[in-house]
Write a structure and sequence with these properties.
Elements lengths: L2 H40 L12 H25 L3
Catalytic activity: oxaloacetate + 2 Na(+)(in) + H(+) = pyruvate + 2 Na(+)(out) + CO2
Enzyme class: translocase
Main location: membrane
Length: 82
């Protein structure tokens, strides 16, 4: 075989391989999208119940958490002085 024939066969094989990969990835994306839409249609996510408007207990809990974290940081710094 001559060099030009080898190069032509190599380019043809490369084009065939790249074309196969492109077609496979395109089909994979299409199937994944279709599967996602099908699952979303037949198994929708449950709707979360409406949140109650009770901000006072959450604020109290945040204050307690802030106090506890501050105490823990203070105690850590006391134990690990340099």
């Amino acid at each position: 075989m001559q060099d030009s024939q080898l190069i032509n066969e190599g380019l043809a094989l490369m084009g065939l391989g790249m074309g196969f990969v492109f077609v496979f990835l395109t089909v994979l994306v299409g199937v994944t999208t279709l599967m996602s839409k099908t699952i979303g249609r037949f198994f929708p996510e449950p709707v979360a119940p409406a949140a109650r408007d009770s901000r006072a207990p959450a604020a109290r809990q945040d204050d307690d958490l802030t106090v506890v974290i501050s105490a823990a940081v203070h105690r850590y710094r006391q134990r690990h002085k340099r």
